[in-house]
Amino acid sequence: MHDMPPPSRMPSPPLSFDGPLGRKIIELHVWAVGEGLRGTEAAPLFDGLCQRLVTAGLPLWRAFAGMKTLHPQWGGYGYTWWRHLNAIRPQQFERGDEYEQGVLNSPIGSLIRLGEERAAANPVGDADPWLHLRRRLTGPEAQLDFPSLAEYAAAGATDYFAEVVRFGADGDPSRGTGVGYSFATDRPEGFHDDDLVLLKAVLPVVSLAMMTHAGHTIASGLLAAYLGDDAGRRVHAGAVERGSVESMLAIFPFDDATREQVCRQALDAAAEAMRAIDGLNAARREAGKPAVAVDLALHLGEVLYGNVGAVDRLDFTVIGPAVNEAARIELLCEPLGRKVLVSAELAATVGESRRLVLLGCHKLRGVGEMREVYGLELG
């Protein structure tokens, strides 16, 4: 843990935007807004920023932008620009102690903690959302209080500036912790005041552009992890209307005391659903629209539910032999000419019922023994 000293004095922004520095700030603002509206990905966006900063006269040696994300496998993303490469090196950081410790021991991590402390101390939201620090890396004012700063100094860097632009004022993790930036130079005298004024003036608007892509990335990643690539893309593209599905699985929990009651209620619900669908289809036919075909299968058994899958692909779902058997019974609806089929296990639980008609024993794919299947009379 590093104790954060008070933020170093920073030069004030220009009083007028008519001068050379003010015009540079305006040009970068206009560019960043355009990139955000276009949804430019974070890597080319940050590369474009670094290229424009160099053109504007900043003596960049290294630049970094990073942000945390919401994903079961990845903890965050980073983008590093090096002058000798004149290119961005994107990174994905896997969740775990190594990543968390790396953030904890970094200048950006210290700024994040400082922001959290200030937000907790100022719950009304008036804490500074743009925290920064500057470290001289050479000479009598050198302050190498983080491991990374000593590495940069040994490689020839002379001055270092970091800033965290936070998203939101209430610590909502769905917004992320913001974007952390760092910039280093190897110019002997370090950064000039105008260099830092320019950085502080443009990083908030660049962060808005970053946030545009970050929000899309977070949503895409979570949808892909929990729904799968194809289904995730469909949902993200707008396939969210009720009824835009081909199949649905529902479970009805019960205990020993409510077992028979829940099974009878499931039969009642199936019959009611079919009556409602018949009414809907009658209205659709009158309007010249195609009818809706719906089949139901009811089964009784034990299931497991929760987040199931690998670290990069999760489903909140139910699994077990009972799930598979219910799906296989539903496939018999069309060949048996029935809208609702019921398993022998559920039929045995409700006992004698004139609504259930034995339709014989049938082979279910993936199930070893033949199974009795019943039809639910809907009249």
Q: Could you explain how this protein is built, in words?
A:
Helices cover about 40% and strands about 20% of the residues. The longest helix is centred in the middle third of the chain and has 35 residues. It is elongated, with a radius of gyration of 31 Å. It has about 375 residues and is α+β, with helices and mostly antiparallel strands. The protein is built from eleven helices and twelve strands.
Name the features.
12 strands; 379 residues; single chain; alpha+beta; elongated
Read across the widest sheet, the strand sequence of neighbours is 3-2-1-6-5-4
- Structural class by sheet pairing and helices: alpha+beta
Share of residues in helices: 40-55%
Number of strands: 12
Profile the largest sheet: 6 strands, antiparallel
What separation lies between the terminal Cα atoms? 73 Å
User: What are the secondary-structure elements, in order, as H or E?
Assistant: HHEEEHHEHEEHHHEEEHHEHEE
Approximately how much beta-strand content do the residues carry?
Answer: 15-25%
Query: Radius of gyration from the CA trace?
Result: 31 Å
Enumerate the spans where pLDDT stays under 50 for 5 or more consecutive residues: none
Number of helices: 11
Mean pLDDT: 84
Coarse shape: elongated
